[in-house]
């Protein structure tokens, strides 16, 4: 099972996420549901890689081996040893993927595959403002600046969260 999952993960990682999302969203009808589906299908493998790496590293730790020898069930070992070590890393990966999702949503919206009008979305706003770029350039500046500031804020929050979670891990 591990081998099959990692080969599937490697296959998905071989394609650039945004290109794959454009292909998937292009095959489906434009809209919010297609956008979410495309970004989910192209984004799961980072979580799988991180979870597998941490799981393999923890499997050889002394306290996990002692728990197995003591007769703890796999569910109990997962609950008490794997999850506390896995969750902080996955939360940090999630913040990075959240920022990437905002960029992906904006990019797909700019290409016309994302959220459809009249629903507001920064990429669609950029696409609509493109025709007025020379006459009213600020129409492109504000949505672009909103994307940049939002992604920057999420990345900074993710870094702070990582620092807080690793400090808690060291203290425990």
Report mean pLDDT, rounded to a whole number.
Answer: 86
Shape: elongated
Structural class: mainly alpha
Number of helices: 7
CA(first)-CA(last) distance = 33 Å
Tally of structural domains: 1
Helical content band: over 70%
Structure commentary:
- The chain has 172 residues and is mainly alpha-helical.
- It has one domain (2-171): MetI-like fold.
- The protein has helices at residues 2-13, 17-27, 32-59, 62-69, 74-110, 122-129, 138-171.
- The protein starts with a helix and ends with a helix.
- The mean pLDDT is 86.
Task: Please outline the helices and strands.
Blueprint lengths: L1 H12 L3 H11 L4 H28 L2 H8 L4 H37 L11 H8 L8 H34 L1
Short description:
By secondary structure, this protein is mainly α. It has seven helices and no strands.
């Amino acid at each position: 099972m591990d081998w099959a999952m990692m080969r599937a993960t490697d296959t998905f990682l071989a394609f650039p996420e945004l290109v794959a999302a454009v292909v998937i969203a292009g095959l489906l009808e434009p809209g919010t549901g297609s956008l979410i589906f495309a970004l989910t299908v192209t984004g799961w493998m980072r979580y799988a890689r991180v979870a597998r790496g941490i799981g393999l590293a923890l499997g050889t730790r002394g306290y996990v081996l002692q728990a197995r020898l003591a007769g703890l069930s796999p569910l109990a070992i997962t609950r008490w040893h794997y999850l506390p070590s896995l969750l902080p890393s996955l939360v940090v990966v999630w913040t990075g993927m959240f920022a990437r999702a905002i960029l992906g949503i904006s990019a797909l919206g700019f290409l016309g595959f994302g959220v459809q009008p009249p629903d507001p979305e920064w990429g669609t706003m950029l696409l609509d403002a493109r025709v007025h770029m020379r006459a009213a350039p600020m129409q492109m500046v504000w949505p672009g600046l909103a994307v940049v500031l939002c992604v920057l804020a999420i990345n900074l929050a993710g870094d702070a969260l990582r620092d807080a979670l690793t400090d808690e891990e060291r203290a425990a």
